[in-house]
Design brief:
The chain is an alpha/beta fold and 306 residues long. It has helices at 10-18, 63-73, 95-106, 125-136, 152-157, 164-176, 194-207, 224-231, 239-251, 282-294, 299-305; strands at residues 22-27, 80-85, 111-118, 140-148, 180-187, 211-216, 219-220, 258-261, 271-273. It has one domain: Aldolase class I (TIM Barrel, Alpha-Beta Barrel), CATH 3.20.20. The strands form two sheets. Strands 1-2-3-4-5-6-8 form a seven-stranded parallel β-sheet, with helices on both faces. Strands 7-9 form a two-stranded antiparallel ribbon. The protein is globular and about 45 Å long. The structure holds iron/sulfur cluster (SF4).
Length: 306
């Protein structure tokens, strides 16, 4: 019994499409972020320390070299991979610079896709058209948009520097071109509860979305929240609460939407809290148990139809 038995996962979809497991290889392509370089703000989103994004963050290796190293580390038997531009804001540069970096990734014959992680306010039309050009040549393209919540008050509080309307505009421009969008949501942000999580999920679904990533708020060293957590403490979701809320959201999600992730893992000492996020499988096991007991993806929607 695994997550695929209850959830439409990215892994299962790829297996069906490519006849084997497709692994995402994370790349640090040396981008920055307008919420850190002073263009929009400094200090970044209050939960963020980009070092927690990926194994490759901070590496000096070229994109080709990072892909090579990623393949050597992976135990993937299918030998097909997706280049995951994860660190910072992976559409935040000049058109030609972006094209050169994306081109370098896809020239590797084992790469079947590009997964581009970015902010909703950093995706102009010409970059969407560039992504379409890869898609037109058969590359699997995903645009991952960090939203975290649809609540504009929370977005302000966590210093995102954009609002929900900005997210909606980018999603509509991307999907109009046939680019698949994956929305990133965080459960447990300060001042939010389950009603906010559900509202964010429903807002994302109503806007139109192809994939979703869920993760619990966790405190990482070097973030603004780390200072608050040290000085005043912060209420963080327990593993049980997170598993329950995430599972409920999954039951509210139509079956055709693909989950790229349902929880998060971070390594100590970068991870400060909660402890359970430092164990790769704990959150996942709790979610699978909850789904097995109470119903899987789309459960509430199929119940409404009957
Ligand atoms: S989460 Fe993304 S947008 Fe926010 S500061 Fe970090 S890199 Fe920038």
């Amino acid at each position: 019994m695994g997550l695929d038995d209850f959830v439409n996962t990215f892994g299962a979809v790829c297996k069906q499409q490519y006849g084997g497991r497709i692994k995402k290889l994370t790349i640090d392509a040396k981008f920055t972020c307008p919420n850190r370089d002073g263009t929009l703000g400094k200090g970044g989103c209050t939960f963020c320390n980009v070092s927690s994004f990926s194994y490759e963050q901070g590496t000096e290796a070229s994109i080709s070299e990072q892909l090579k190293q990623g393949k050597q580390r992976s135990l993937n038997d299918s030998a097909k991979y997706i280049a995951y531009f994860q660190a910072y804001t992976s559409t935040y540069d000049e058109y030609q610079v972006l094209k050169t970096k994306y081109d370098e990734a896809i020239k590797d014959s084992d790469i079947v896709g590009l997964h581009i992680g970015t902010r909703p306010d950093c995706v102009p039309d010409d970059i969407l058209d560039l992504l379409v050009s890869y898609q037109d040549k058969g590359t699997e393209v995903w645009l991952e948009l960090g939203l975290q919540t649809s609540n504009n008050d929370t977005l302000k509080r966590i210093n995102r520097g954009h609002d929900f309307a900005c997210y909606q505009d980018t999603v509509q421009r991307a999907r109009k071109r046939g680019i698949k969008v994956c929305a990133h949501l965080i459960l447990g942000l300060p001042g939010e509860d389950y009603s906010d999580y559900l509202r964010s999920l429903n807002s994302v679904i109503e806007t139109g979305v192809d994939g979703i990533k869920l993760h619990p708020l966790h405190i990482v060293e070097g973030s603004v929240m780390a200072k608050t957590w040290r000085h005043k403490g912060m209420a963080l979701l327990t593993k049980e609460d997170y598993a329950n809320y995430a599972s409920e959201l999954i039951r509210h999600t139509p079956k055709d939407i693909i989950f790229h992730r349902v929880t998060a893992y971070a390594k100590k000492p970068l991870l400060l809290a909660p402890d359970w996020c430092g164990y790769r499988w704990e959150g996942l096991v709790a979610i699978v148990q909850n789904l097995a007991a109470n119903g899987g993806q789309g459960h509430y929607l199929s119940a409404q139809k009957n």
